Every structure is written in structure tokens, then in C-alpha cells.
Amino acid sequence: MDIPIKLLSDEKGYLDRECPNENCLYTFKINMQDWSDKVSDDEVHCPMCGHIDTSDKWWTQAQLDAAREIAINYAMNMIHEKLDDAFGSLAKSTRRNKYVKITYKPGKRIGFTNNPIGQSEEWETDITCESCGTRYSVIGSAYFCPCCGYNSAISVFDESLDSIEKMLDSLEEMNELLTKSYGRDKAETMCRGLLESSLGDIVSAFQKFAECVFKTKSSVSVKVNDFQIVEKGSKLFADAVGKGYDEWLSSKELQQMNLLFQKRHILEHNGGIVDERYLKQSGDTSYVLGQHLVVRKEDALELLNIIKKLSTGLKTI
User: Fold this and answer.
1) pLDDT of 187 above 90
2) What's the mean pLDDT in 51-70?
3) φ, ψ (nearest 5 deg) of residue 293
4) Do 27 and 60 touch, CB atoms closer than 8 A?
């Protein structure tokens, strides 16, 4: 039994999809025409986790519920029709029978209307894949094109920096909200944790971005953390394209970048406790051995601005 089910796009022409990976279940939208014309039946990529599956696996829960309701109503309507035909005919055949008389009163029919399944409201962030041109829409971040799986390091990097900046700008407001829910002490601890982790988020985003850009310019193999070391990353680019970080950053900015990269390292790998390696590699004279680093909002914003300036330059090579 085949039941034709029609899907309507949202007002932008997009179709809702959901990752079938149970550990993800990420919901996204894809242009309905691109889904039909470009996306392979054998291979669809989740924009969030990169899971690959056949095209028949990407129904959202809302679409499945709507399709299930259509199927149930269709089946019940068909059953009623069959019962009406069978028992109605049987009742007619015994009208003049003196010994057996069967009566049949049809029950209340379930109306069946095969309405098209609509989509959720339109989202703000629309993306066009740099590789295949597929148009899709997401909430928050996305890493892979649903059609070809292309990972745009530049768009992901820019989105990451924008999210970090918005988080930093909202710290005071977040502190107030958290204070109301958890008290001043816990709110302060949570916000301090967010501030400290922002350095790591910036460095990690830059490392992935720089590595992807470098791979387009050189066949030299690099280690996973080479671009977390300022001097080494600068030299790699200088050797590959003749331009190091000093092409776009002043000596003061490079010094601050190195200092904040070192702060990030000590926060993530030594609990923020100053050791001899930090003092030697950062050149920071404001701390002594055994002290705990303090990260200010100004530190994170300064690193964010330095990385934005450097990445803008690297995009031009």
C-alpha cells in the first residue's frame, strides 16, 4: 500500500532535515530544489557531526509524526470502506431471507485528507557551500555541507570568533542571571570559567584555521599543535609563502599574542598555576613561580582582535 505524502517548503524554499545519528540528532534545513537536484540518494552529510547516511534517513521527528498520522487515517478510512462494502452487501443480500436477516449500521467515518506536511519557521543563518553551491540553513554553527561534506574552515572560524565575542560581551548579563539562580559565588565561578576557557577557544579556532590555510599553500607535514606556538606557526608560513605573522602584526601584538597563547597553555595543562616553563616562554614578569594566573575580559578581547587581524592577512595569501 503506497500513500503519497507531499512536503511543502518554508517561505525561503527550505526543507527540514534531522541527523539520524542518535548521538547527534542535529536539525538543519536544506533548499528543497537542491535536495532534489544535487544531493545523492546514497550519501547525505550531517552539517554538525559529519555522519553520512542514505537520503531516506533524514526525516525530522515532526515529519515522522505527521506522516504516521496520515498513514493511520488513511488505513482507518480504507478499513471503514472495506467494512461498509462487505457488510453493506451482506445486509442487502439477506433482506428477503425469511430465516436469516443481517443488519449493518456504518460507524462514524474517519475523514481522510492528505494534507501536505509543512516545515518549521525560517531560520536566520543561510549558508551556500563554497564547493558545490548547495544552500542550507542552520541555527548556531555548522561544519559540513550536507551535499558534498565540504568543511569550510574559514566560515567555521569566523562563526567561532563571532560566538566567542558575543559570549564575552554578555558576561556581565550572564553573571546577573546566574546570580539569581545559583547565588553570587557560583555565578562568579562559572563566569570566570567561561572567561578562562575563551582563551582556549580562540587558540583552538585559530589553530584549525591556520592549519587549513597552510595546507593549501604547502605540502609540508605539520603537527596538531604547531599553530598553537606563535614563533613556529609564523616560521611555517614564512617558509611556505615568504610572509610570517610580522607581515600583519606589530612586534607588540606578536608579543601579546605569544603571552596570551602561553596563558592559555598553562590554564589548560597546569590548572593555571605558573611554572618555570611559562615564565621562560612568555616573558611575563608580573607573576612568580606558583602563583595562579588571572584572566581579564580585556585579555580575551585583545587576543580576539589580534587573531582577527592576523587571520584577515592570512586569508589574502
Assistant:
1) yes
2) 92
3) -65, 145
4) yes
Q: What is the pLDDT of residue 272?
A: 96
Residue 210 phi/psi, 5-degree rounding, is -60, -40
The CA-based angle 141-146-147, given to 5 degrees, is: 145
Task: Measure the CA–CA gap between 17 and 60, rounded to whole angstroms.
Answer: 6
Give me the chain's average pLDDT, please.
89
Residue 87 pLDDT more than 90?
no
The amino acid that residue 183 corresponds to is G
Predicted TM-score (pTM) above 0.90: no
Contact 105, 4 (CB under 8 A): no
Q: In sequence order, what are the residues at sequence separation of 6 or more whose Cβ sits closer than 8 angstroms to the Cβ of residue 18? A: 25, 26, 27, 28, 58, 59, 60, 61
d(CA 246, CA 255): 11
C-alpha span between 197 and 272 (Å, rounded): 11
Measured distance CA(278)–CA(274) in Å, rounded: 6
| 32 touches 54 (CB < 8 A) | no
Half-sphere exposure of 38 (CA within 13 A, CB side): 20
